[in-house]
Amino acid sequence: MKMWVLSSPGVYRPQGDTYLLEHVLKRSGVCAGLDVLDVGTGTGALAMVAARCGARSVTAVDVSARAVLTAWVNARISATQSPKPQRPRLVPSMISLKDSRARSTFC
C-alpha cells in the first residue's frame, strides 16, 4: 500500500525503495520499542512508518532545510490521521551516528 505524503521540489519523494522498506518495517516489527534514526529523511515517509510501527522515538535528519520542513509538515498531517498520534522529532542537520542512541538506522 503506497503512503501519501506531501512532497516539495528538490526533496526525495517516496519511490519503490521507500515502499519496500515500508512493507518490511510493517511486517517485521523491527522498530517496536527502539530509538530509530532516519538519515536523509526526505519527505519523512519512513520516519512516520517507524513511529506508527511502535518505535520508542524517531529522529529524522536531512541536510536539506526544505526536506526537514517537508518532513515536519508530513509528520503534522500524519499525527492528525493516526489513532495513536506520534510525530518524529526532526533535526535540520546531520548528526554524528556514533553519538546517536538509535538501534535502528535507515539511510
Helix and strand topology:
Layout: H1 16-28, E1 35-39, H2 45-52, E2 57-61, H3 65-81, E3 89-91, E4 104-106
Parallel strand pairs: 1-2, 1-4, 2-3
Helix pairs in contact: 1-2
Cα-atom radius of gyration: 12 Å
CATH fold-level topology: Rossmann fold
Largest sheet: spatial strand order: 3-2-1-4
Supply the CATH class: Alpha Beta
User: Based on CA inertia axes, which overall geometry fits?
Assistant: globular
Helicity level: 25-40%
Q: Specify the biggest β-sheet.
A: 4 strands, parallel
Task: Write a concise synopsis of the structure shown.
This protein is α/β, with parallel strands linked by helices. The protein contains three helices and four strands.
Provide key terms for this protein.
107 residues, alpha/beta, Rossmann fold, 3 helices, 36% helix, globular
What does this structure look like?
The chain is of the alpha/beta class and 107 residues long. It has a single domain, classed as Vaccinia Virus protein VP39 (Rossmann fold). It is 36% helix and 15% strand. The protein is built from three helices and four strands. Strands 3-2-1-4 form a four-stranded parallel sheet, with helices on one face. Strand 1, helix 2 (45-52) and strand 2 form a beta-alpha-beta unit. Helix 1 packs parallel to helix 2. The longest helix is centred in the C-terminal third of the chain and has 17 residues, at 65-81. It is globular and about 30 Å long. The two termini are 21 Å apart.
